[in-house]
Amino acid sequence: MSRHVLLTGFAPFGPHPMNPSELLVRSLEGRVIAGRVVDVRVLPVETRTLRNHLEAALRQQPYEFAIGTGFAPGRISLALERAALNVLDFELPDAVGTMRKNDPVQRGGPDARLATLPLGEIVDAWRALGIPGYVSNTAGTYLCNQWLYEALAITANASPPIPAGFLHLPALPAQAAELGAERTPSMALDLMRRGVETLIETVAGWLESLPATVQQRAAGQMWIPRGLREVER
Prior knowledge:
Layout: E1 3-10, H1 20-28, E2 32-33, E3 36-43, H2 50-58, E4 65-71, E5 78-81, E6 83-85, E7 112-114, H3 119-129, E8 133-136, H4 143-154, E9 164-169, H5 173-179, H6 189-208, H7 212-215
Parallel strand pairs: 1-3, 1-4, 4-9, 5-8
Antiparallel strand pairs: 2-3, 5-9, 6-7
Helix pairs in contact: 2-4, 3-6
Protein backbone atom coordinates (compact mmCIF):
# COMPACT_ATOMS: atom_id res chain seq x y z
CA MET A 1 0.00 0.00 0.00
CA SER A 2 1.32 3.43 -0.96
CA ARG A 3 2.37 5.72 1.86
CA HIS A 4 1.14 9.30 1.70
CA VAL A 5 1.80 12.58 3.47
CA LEU A 6 -0.61 15.53 3.33
CA LEU A 7 1.04 18.89 2.64
CA THR A 8 -1.07 22.04 2.57
CA GLY A 9 -0.49 25.68 1.73
CA PHE A 10 -2.70 28.73 1.60
CA ALA A 11 -3.91 30.90 -1.27
CA PRO A 12 -2.96 34.61 -1.34
CA PHE A 13 -4.59 36.84 1.26
CA GLY A 14 -4.82 40.45 2.36
CA PRO A 15 -2.24 42.73 0.75
CA HIS A 16 -0.13 39.81 -0.51
CA PRO A 17 -0.83 38.87 -4.17
CA MET A 18 1.47 35.86 -3.85
CA ASN A 19 1.68 33.29 -1.05
CA PRO A 20 5.01 31.43 -0.77
CA SER A 21 3.23 28.48 0.83
CA GLU A 22 1.18 27.91 -2.33
CA LEU A 23 4.24 28.06 -4.57
CA LEU A 24 6.15 25.76 -2.25
CA VAL A 25 3.58 23.00 -1.91
CA ARG A 26 2.72 23.02 -5.62
CA SER A 27 6.41 22.51 -6.40
CA LEU A 28 6.31 19.29 -4.35
CA GLU A 29 3.00 17.90 -5.59
CA GLY A 30 3.21 14.23 -6.51
CA ARG A 31 6.84 13.91 -5.43
CA VAL A 32 7.98 10.79 -3.62
CA ILE A 33 10.13 11.72 -0.62
CA ALA A 34 11.46 9.07 1.75
CA GLY A 35 9.06 6.60 0.15
CA ARG A 36 6.03 8.84 0.78
CA VAL A 37 3.83 10.30 -1.94
CA VAL A 38 3.25 14.00 -1.30
CA ASP A 39 -0.42 14.95 -1.69
CA VAL A 40 -0.97 18.69 -1.89
CA ARG A 41 -3.91 20.94 -1.06
CA VAL A 42 -4.02 24.73 -1.37
CA LEU A 43 -6.63 26.05 1.04
CA PRO A 44 -8.57 29.30 0.79
CA VAL A 45 -7.89 31.81 3.53
CA GLU A 46 -11.43 31.48 4.89
CA THR A 47 -11.94 30.87 8.60
CA ARG A 48 -15.51 29.55 8.38
CA THR A 49 -14.67 26.77 5.94
CA LEU A 50 -11.16 25.84 7.01
CA ARG A 51 -12.12 22.87 9.17
CA ASN A 52 -14.34 21.44 6.43
CA HIS A 53 -11.50 21.70 3.92
CA LEU A 54 -9.11 19.97 6.32
CA GLU A 55 -11.54 17.14 7.05
CA ALA A 56 -12.17 16.63 3.34
CA ALA A 57 -8.45 16.53 2.60
CA LEU A 58 -7.76 14.01 5.38
CA ARG A 59 -10.45 11.68 4.02
CA GLN A 60 -8.63 11.22 0.72
CA GLN A 61 -5.93 8.86 1.98
CA PRO A 62 -4.85 7.06 5.16
CA TYR A 63 -2.14 9.68 5.70
CA GLU A 64 0.88 8.88 7.82
CA PHE A 65 1.29 12.52 8.81
CA ALA A 66 0.10 16.01 7.87
CA ILE A 67 2.04 19.25 7.47
CA GLY A 68 0.56 22.71 7.03
CA THR A 69 2.51 25.66 5.68
CA GLY A 70 1.71 29.36 5.70
CA PHE A 71 3.21 32.78 5.02
CA ALA A 72 4.43 34.92 7.92
CA PRO A 73 6.18 38.05 6.62
CA GLY A 74 8.80 39.11 9.12
CA ARG A 75 9.82 35.60 10.19
CA ILE A 76 13.58 35.28 9.92
CA SER A 77 13.62 31.68 8.67
CA LEU A 78 11.57 28.50 8.65
CA ALA A 79 9.52 28.44 11.86
CA LEU A 80 8.17 25.13 13.13
CA GLU A 81 5.23 25.79 15.43
CA ARG A 82 5.09 24.14 18.83
CA ALA A 83 1.54 25.05 19.86
CA ALA A 84 -1.82 26.32 18.63
CA LEU A 85 -3.97 28.50 20.87
CA ASN A 86 -7.73 28.21 21.17
CA VAL A 87 -8.22 31.80 20.06
CA LEU A 88 -8.70 33.70 16.81
CA ASP A 89 -7.97 37.41 16.92
CA PHE A 90 -7.49 38.79 13.41
CA GLU A 91 -5.60 41.92 12.45
CA LEU A 92 -7.07 41.81 8.95
CA PRO A 93 -10.14 40.08 7.47
CA ASP A 94 -9.89 36.72 5.77
CA ALA A 95 -10.33 36.39 2.01
CA VAL A 96 -14.13 36.79 2.18
CA GLY A 97 -14.11 39.65 4.66
CA THR A 98 -14.70 37.76 7.91
CA MET A 99 -13.16 39.28 11.04
CA ARG A 100 -12.80 37.32 14.26
CA LYS A 101 -11.85 39.06 17.47
CA ASN A 102 -11.09 37.06 20.62
CA ASP A 103 -13.13 34.08 19.34
CA PRO A 104 -12.40 30.47 20.28
CA VAL A 105 -11.43 28.01 17.58
CA GLN A 106 -13.35 25.36 19.49
CA ARG A 107 -15.73 26.42 22.23
CA GLY A 108 -14.98 24.33 25.31
CA GLY A 109 -11.79 22.98 23.78
CA PRO A 110 -8.41 23.01 25.51
CA ASP A 111 -6.63 26.36 25.74
CA ALA A 112 -3.84 25.02 23.52
CA ARG A 113 -2.89 21.95 21.52
CA LEU A 114 0.70 20.85 20.98
CA ALA A 115 2.08 19.80 17.60
CA THR A 116 2.74 16.08 17.34
CA LEU A 117 5.74 16.16 15.00
CA PRO A 118 9.27 15.49 16.34
CA LEU A 119 10.25 19.17 16.46
CA GLY A 120 13.73 18.78 17.91
CA GLU A 121 14.73 16.13 15.39
CA ILE A 122 13.55 18.28 12.50
CA VAL A 123 15.51 21.34 13.64
CA ASP A 124 18.61 19.18 14.19
CA ALA A 125 18.28 17.83 10.64
CA TRP A 126 17.99 21.36 9.25
CA ARG A 127 21.02 22.48 11.21
CA ALA A 128 23.09 19.57 9.88
CA LEU A 129 22.32 20.70 6.33
CA GLY A 130 22.74 24.42 6.94
CA ILE A 131 19.02 25.17 6.53
CA PRO A 132 17.92 28.06 8.78
CA GLY A 133 15.00 27.03 10.99
CA TYR A 134 13.81 27.04 14.58
CA VAL A 135 10.94 26.04 16.87
CA SER A 136 8.48 28.90 17.37
CA ASN A 137 6.29 29.09 20.44
CA THR A 138 3.50 31.09 18.84
CA ALA A 139 1.60 30.45 15.64
CA GLY A 140 -0.19 33.78 15.95
CA THR A 141 -3.96 34.12 16.07
CA TYR A 142 -4.83 34.03 12.36
CA LEU A 143 -5.63 31.09 10.08
CA CYS A 144 -2.26 29.37 10.46
CA ASN A 145 -2.96 29.00 14.17
CA GLN A 146 -6.46 27.80 13.31
CA TRP A 147 -5.08 25.20 10.88
CA LEU A 148 -2.85 23.72 13.57
CA TYR A 149 -5.54 23.71 16.25
CA GLU A 150 -8.15 22.19 13.91
CA ALA A 151 -5.76 19.59 12.48
CA LEU A 152 -4.72 18.45 15.95
CA ALA A 153 -8.37 18.26 17.05
CA ILE A 154 -9.37 16.26 13.97
CA THR A 155 -6.51 13.76 14.34
CA ALA A 156 -6.63 13.53 18.14
CA ASN A 157 -8.41 10.17 18.16
CA ALA A 158 -6.88 8.67 15.03
CA SER A 159 -5.66 5.09 15.41
CA PRO A 160 -2.80 4.75 14.79
CA PRO A 161 -1.91 8.40 15.44
CA ILE A 162 -1.51 10.86 12.58
CA PRO A 163 1.21 13.33 13.61
CA ALA A 164 0.51 16.90 12.50
CA GLY A 165 2.40 20.17 12.58
CA PHE A 166 2.67 23.58 11.00
CA LEU A 167 5.53 25.43 9.32
CA HIS A 168 5.62 29.21 8.90
CA LEU A 169 7.56 30.55 5.92
CA PRO A 170 9.40 33.87 5.56
CA ALA A 171 9.00 36.15 2.56
CA LEU A 172 10.50 35.32 -0.81
CA PRO A 173 13.28 37.69 -1.96
CA ALA A 174 10.99 39.48 -4.42
CA GLN A 175 8.42 40.00 -1.66
CA ALA A 176 11.09 41.36 0.68
CA ALA A 177 12.05 43.88 -1.98
CA GLU A 178 8.42 45.02 -2.18
CA LEU A 179 7.85 45.08 1.59
CA GLY A 180 11.15 46.78 2.40
CA ALA A 181 14.33 44.75 2.20
CA GLU A 182 15.87 46.57 5.16
CA ARG A 183 13.20 45.22 7.51
CA THR A 184 11.93 42.02 5.83
CA PRO A 185 13.96 38.79 6.05
CA SER A 186 13.65 36.47 3.08
CA MET A 187 14.49 32.98 1.90
CA ALA A 188 14.75 31.52 -1.61
CA LEU A 189 12.06 29.07 -2.67
CA ASP A 190 14.66 26.37 -3.38
CA LEU A 191 15.92 26.55 0.21
CA MET A 192 12.38 26.44 1.59
CA ARG A 193 11.73 23.38 -0.57
CA ARG A 194 14.84 21.65 0.76
CA GLY A 195 13.64 22.46 4.26
CA VAL A 196 10.29 20.77 3.67
CA GLU A 197 11.91 17.79 1.98
CA THR A 198 14.16 17.39 5.02
CA LEU A 199 11.17 17.75 7.33
CA ILE A 200 9.36 14.92 5.52
CA GLU A 201 12.47 12.73 5.51
CA THR A 202 12.96 13.30 9.23
CA VAL A 203 9.37 12.55 10.19
CA ALA A 204 9.39 9.43 7.99
CA GLY A 205 12.55 8.17 9.70
CA TRP A 206 11.10 8.93 13.13
CA LEU A 207 7.93 6.99 12.32
CA GLU A 208 9.95 4.05 11.06
CA SER A 209 11.81 3.96 14.36
CA LEU A 210 8.55 3.41 16.26
CA PRO A 211 7.27 -0.10 17.05
CA ALA A 212 5.75 -1.85 14.04
CA THR A 213 2.33 -2.00 15.68
CA VAL A 214 2.22 1.78 15.75
CA GLN A 215 3.40 2.15 12.16
CA GLN A 216 0.96 -0.15 10.43
CA ARG A 217 -2.76 0.03 9.79
CA ALA A 218 -4.91 -3.04 9.56
CA ALA A 219 -5.33 -4.21 5.99
CA GLY A 220 -8.03 -2.22 4.27
CA GLN A 221 -8.68 -0.06 7.33
CA MET A 222 -9.00 3.68 6.80
CA TRP A 223 -9.57 6.22 9.52
CA ILE A 224 -12.22 8.79 8.58
CA PRO A 225 -12.11 12.09 10.52
CA ARG A 226 -15.38 13.27 11.94
CA GLY A 227 -16.15 16.83 12.99
CA LEU A 228 -16.65 17.83 16.59
CA ARG A 229 -20.17 19.11 17.01
CA GLU A 230 -19.18 21.75 19.54
CA VAL A 231 -16.82 23.50 17.12
CA GLU A 232 -17.91 27.01 16.34
CA ARG A 233 -16.86 28.36 13.00
